[in-house]
Amino acid sequence: MRNSIWLFLLLLLLTAGCDKNTIIHSYQPLENNQWERTDTVRFTLPALSSDDNCNMLIGLRVTNNYPYEILVMEVAQHYQHPVAHRVDTVYYRLADESGNLMKNGVNLYQYETQAVPLEQKKGQRGEVRIRHLMHKDTLPGIVDVGIHVVR
Q: How far apart are CA 116 and CA 15, in angstroms?
């Protein structure tokens, strides 16, 4: 009986962690918690099994060391078979006018931007490349950059 309860709890835990709408949810750490202008963060997209309409959210993990109110990023999508490209500019407000980060946290704040349409078609493999478009070469306080692709 005791083993059955543990097995049930394990199965419940495993199914609770599944999200059928999430295709990929991945983060890349940035070296020294800063984002250099020359650093392009890359994510490989698996081939889709159907022509679903998908959206992509750009995720950020930021510390108190980020000195600006906004972050401007270029989000480039590149696909093969057939070849296709899409480039979006994403403006994201991280802090209010007083410089206070707009998420709760102690030392690390997590954000997800507005949805960017994903142009991937059934069977295509692709890559997403993200780089910052800020005037400064080095942005301190950016710990991770990620993507969350959902149906």
A: 28
* Burial grade of 23 (CB within 10 A; 0-12, 13-18, 19 or more): buried
Domain map (residue ranges) of the chain: 21-150
Q: What CATH code would you report for 21-150?
A: 2.60.120
pTM beyond cutoff 0.90: no
CB 32 within 8 A of CB 139: no
Handedness of CA 136, 113, 33, 76 (dihedral sign): negative
How far is Cα 79 from Cα 123, in angstroms, rounded to an integer? 10
Residue type, 90: V
Q: What is the pLDDT of residues 22-53, one digit of tens each?
A: 889 999 999 999 999 999 999 999 888 887 78
